[in-house]
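Predict both folds.
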Amino acid sequence: MKPYEIDLEKDQKYFWCTCGFSAKQPFCDGAHKGSGLKSYCFNAEVSEKVKLCGCKKTKNPPYCDGSHNTCP
């Protein structure tokens, strides 16, 4: 799964989906409940366009690090 290009707003709190079940990708909608997983909370330090990981294999959550290039 390729990354999601998102405009983040400075000082805004975001909850990135770590399970892949959310209908509001790349953000959490609570679909992980009961799975033992939880969302990844982060604050935007600046307003900017970023690429958030879609494959959930990034080593730099929530940002894309190119791991999707090794996904099937």
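Second protein follows, with its predicted structure tokens after the sequence.
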Amino acid sequence: METRVAILSIIVSDMDAVPKLNEYLHEAAPYIIGRMGIPYRRCGVSIISVAMDAPQDFISALSGRIGRLKGVSGKVVYSNVITPAEQGREVCIE
């Protein structure tokens, strides 16, 4: 199965959602390249960026699950970088 490189951007305004959000991200750990979280205390939100290399269906499903959490919004930006399954994860093409 082909994988896509993508960025999942998340804004958390209800900190009660954080344990469930972390559970979802933990389940996605094999596909996560890196993650950066910034607490924006002045506005009472946390901003999280998650770089992923995963099947597009998986990324879309994860974004949907995250977006259904109360006080959490998420959007995905997909790159044109695709990793063909037959070549393994070391080779990326555009």
